[in-house]
Write a sequence for this structure.
């Protein structure tokens, strides 16, 4: 579990164009990570 103020581990995901983007690509910049539950779930 991530805790506020603790650095997140580096990870990589593909963007909408299929380009690999790493969290470390944004080092030194402010980043907001937003996680949401699975689509089409109640609540």
């Amino acid at each position: 579990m991530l805790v506020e103020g603790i650095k997140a581990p580096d990870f990589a995901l593909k963007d909408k164009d299929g380009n690999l983007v790493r969290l470390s690509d944004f080092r030194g910049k402010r980043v907001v990570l937003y996680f949401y539950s699975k689509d089409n779930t109640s609540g």
About this structure: The mean pLDDT is 85. The radius of gyration is 13 Å.
